[in-house]
Design goal:
Length: 528
Amino acid sequence: MRTAPRQFSFSRVACGASFLIILTIVTSLRAADNPLTWGDQGDGTYKNPILKTDFSDPDITRVGSDFYMVASDFHFVGMQVLHSNDLVNWQIIGQVFNKLTMDLSTKHKYDQMTAYGEGTWAPSIRYHDGEFYVYVCTPYDGLFMWHTKNPAGPWSDTVTVKAIPQWEDPCPFWDDDGHAYLIHSHKGAGPLIVHKMSADGTTLLDDGQQIYMGKGAEGPKMYKRHGYYYVSFPEGGVATGGQVVIRSKNIYGPYERKQVLPDGSPHQGGMVELDNGQAWFISFKSTGWLGRVDYLNPVTWGADDWPVFGDNGKPVDQWKKPDVGATYPIERPETSDDFNEKTLRPIWQWNHNPELPYPFGGLLDDGLFFLARPADSIDHARNTLTQKIWDDSGVVDVKLEVSGGIRGGRAGLAFISGSTFNWVGAAGENAWQVGWQGSDNTAPLLEGRELWLRGTYNGDTAKLLYSLDGKNYVQAGPPVKLKFANWKGARVGLFCYQQGVNGDFVGPIPDARFKYFHYRYGEDSTRK
């Protein structure tokens, strides 16, 4: 008799110093085992990027000695929240939501798997009066907000601040006098608009006032220092733009302009200032297939109250770590999972909305369980679980067990580039056999119900392999190209669905158990 899986939820951790005891497992890296080609170098310096994966359009906030970050996740569910004590070593501690409810089209696009490239664009995170706030726009639905006292969660239900299309990149701002504002741009970049907002952040109080036009201005972040209102934002395009700062003594302007990082630099991100006067800017740089990876640049303030980004206006490659008053270990978010905890770790994200909870999926004592849902193709398959790809090369190993019905069953491992899936796994018609993109009924039959899967990548070239015994691997199909698509870098995913049944179950339902997911990045992906 099948036991009910534990319900999907995400591990949470407490705020403050207790982050040093984390439920999200992290890896302590040693240079001898994994050359530190990016991030913390273990000698008081760091190398850019600090996060070599796709955390695009990042924003950060500081509360005491703790730093928190969010980034664009588009059609992937959750919007991950990261924490750091030193701005260099980050951990994924939770997610803002567990379902994309921001659909005002009445077409259920996030349930129908038809909203690739939509979802959460360029969020902002702020802390005000004991509460954390996250704001985001979706391109066709509106302006939305969540709030919490604990950034690891749980967060509030989704608050619809304004149902309106074509807005993007919102950022709230609470002034010294208690008045609240919100700045945003429009889809396609620019102009920048400032609105008055209710103190609780739930309502806009006017139609807004344009403060800046510019060339492709987007992603504005508002700050105040020494009586000046500053807005930091990129101009010139996602791949080729630079960073600009404007300032004024009046929130509505007129504003002075200064370009603080040249075109082609890391841009669009958030800035924080430490108690000792140091300031730092985290932003992204486009890399192609891997996505938009995160860079850390110092910011100093001149006697004229203009910020100077990087090394006299040039982005840094390697620099002294922020002086946060303590030294913290080298840590990076864990990527492997043996699925032996009670909750799903926040390193995982669903492709569009999952169809959960049980009976469609859950965590069993013997692995991650999925009951197949009907779909006409893999890109429309509900309950596909994904992770970001890290670094220039890596190896993913998965053990899969299939059971239940056979007809139309598909389960396995995929490389995902936007809505393009290249996969290897188990495929069922009259019997379970190995399947992959483009395979036919001459592929090997499974010897029992177990199958070992492997994905490797070296640059943008990836390979998918299978093994019937866990020792000897065979390449499944030709190499595939990983690509940046639908605004996201390539990902790796786990899936289980029933193919070609037009929304209805046919016969006994296939199911799959993933026993483990072991992911080692930074290794040579050509090894067997």
